[in-house]
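Problem 3 from the worked examples.
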Amino acid sequence: MKYGHRIADLRDEKHLTQEELALKVGITRSALSHYENNRREPDYETIQRIADFFTVSVDYLMGRSEDLTHTANEHAKEFVSQLELSDQAVLDKFTLTIDGRELTSEEATRFIHFIRAQRSSS
């Protein structure tokens, strides 16, 4: 199912008009109509506001999940809440990539040293 149909279905479940939903999420009614008819794709901020309004995940709205209440797993929550790259446990637990290629442990360490040098020279 495309994102537009999901937005329209959720709006219908709440018995909202396009005008009412558009007002609640801070967009125009015509923009919402374009989204619901899959003529335009909402930007990330807009899709996030829509997901927040309906208390669903962005993945659900975008058709990447069938789970309305999908929440981040514990590793993702930890990653988002606090990321200290110099902590070896973080480097061991997560794969860091640049341009789709995994950083080696040595590259990650050099990256950390580079940032520290940049900060100390400022």
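Problem 4, a separate protein:
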Amino acid sequence: MSLFKRTTVGKPGEWFYCLRHQKVEEGPECPAKDRFGPYGTREEAENAMRTAHERNKEWRNDPRWHDDDKQADDNED
């Protein structure tokens, strides 16, 4: 038996999307490194991947970010 068992802590009504199992969980069942959330509703958690994709697209096209120049510099190494 382990003295220091890691447990996931969550509240009822908090919803998460598990990246490892690709499923919605009420209360975290998996470690934080494997999930998005918490979300307020099951529907929000179900749309986690779509939301992330849309936000990534917005950030890539945001003129306030100039990561393309830095990435070009990084790829030259």
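Solution to problem 4. The mean pLDDT is 82. The radius of gyration is 17 Å.
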